[in-house]
Amino acid sequence: MNRTADAIVIGGGVMGASIAYHLAQAGVPRVTLLEKKHLCHGGTGKSTAVIRMHYENEPETRLAFASYATYAHFGDVVGGECGFVKAGVLWIVGARDANKLRANVAMHQRVGANARVVTPDEVQSIEPAYRVDDFALAAYEPDSGYADPLLTTFAFAKRAREMGATIREGVGARRVIASDSRVTGVETDDGIIEAPIVIDAAGCWAAPLAKTAGVDVPIVVQRNQVAVLRQPPDLMRQHACTADVSAGMYFRPDGNHATQVGAGAGEDGVDPDGYNQAVDAGFADLAKSKVRQRVPKLERGVFRGGWSGIYDMTPDGKAILDRVGPDGFYLACGFSGTGFKKAPAVGLCLSEWITEGLPRTADLRPFRLSRWAEGQPLVGEHEYGAGGGHFWQSDKEIS
């Protein structure tokens, strides 16, 4: 194993792979990515990988928008396949959130996203199988959709290798080493690697690693469940990816014949190395009871299994992208379950920051670690329901 590097990226999910790829593309000669298990072992491997621009705050929308072209033209931009399907995205709200949705869509359009407000009748013209008599408005992104999280990560990693990066699977990072307030390397399961730059992109393992660099990161590991329903014969199609604030759930197509459904409150404080990766006994019934409110035909959907994944949740449900602690230490973590769609832009921003001294693609200051101590959490001006976090995890009435 090489004992020196110019930059070490810790974490083999889509974020770490994107950062390694972009650093190598920017000309950093010796990039090493460390993953203690295998690529996509953590949250990325269980991601539903929806590609959307719909957020209630501009900084996240800008990161998602800056990432979109990479997914839409992945073969030309990166090389390889990411599995992008332009299924469209619908964001459905009740009457109390209608004006908020209008304001958010206006912001999305200002950023450059192809988004528009649509009425219930227009939703039915887009998705004839949807029930449309119980909500007020929706936002529609016809160019958005979903991708394959594993294909995407593998492609980033493959291209990083081709440009000279080293991908070390099965090698865990034990601690960040610093001397005289400067990063000097990482102690791994296989010895010390010296490097002046270390990027903590370890997801649900990011906080304990940052602690070894003297940095406290407010991340709670949360388990969330997804059910897969086989569509009945009279529905089978690639419907739009749908976030339904009025019903408290989200769903997306799984190929031409199935639907993935996420709903219910997440389970906080789980062990990322020892959580239940299956779904709970009653989750299939909960998922079906939620999704049939919008797609009645899925009442006859057949439960074909599911899984549980983990989110690295922060207090405001937004990422931490910062340079903190000893000089040369960077954080790219705390994405709270919405990191996949932003991974290309985050990788590019971190590479710009490291090689040029400043991220140019997007302003990362809203994602600084100090925002909570400053009393400035990242909160949108027009957040739905009670605001913050993930609306589908709320037990409160949100219609």
Features:
399 residues, alpha+beta, FAD/NAD(P)-binding domain, D-Amino Acid Oxidase, Chain A, domain 2, 2 domains, nine-stranded mixed β-sheet, six-stranded mixed β-sheet, 25% strand, globular, disordered C terminus
Give a written overview of the molecule:
The chain is built from 9 helices and 20 strands. The protein has helices spanning 14-25, 58-72, 74-77, 98-111, 120-126, 149-162, 206-211, 283-291, 343-356; strands spanning 7-10, 31-35, 50-51, 89-93, 116-118, 137-141, 145-146, 166-169, 173-179, 182-188, 191-194, 198-200, 220-230, 241-244, 249-253, 258-263, 267-268, 302-313, 320-323, 329-333. The protein has 399 residues and is α+β, with helices and mostly antiparallel strands. It has 2 domains: 1-85 and 144-218 and 314-399, 3-Layer(bba) Sandwich (FAD/NAD(P)-binding domain), CATH 3.50.50.60; 86-143 and 220-313, D-Amino Acid Oxidase, Chain A, domain 2. Strands 4, 5, 6, 13, 14, 15, 16, 17 and 18 form a 9-stranded mixed β-sheet that branches. Helix 1 packs across helix 9.
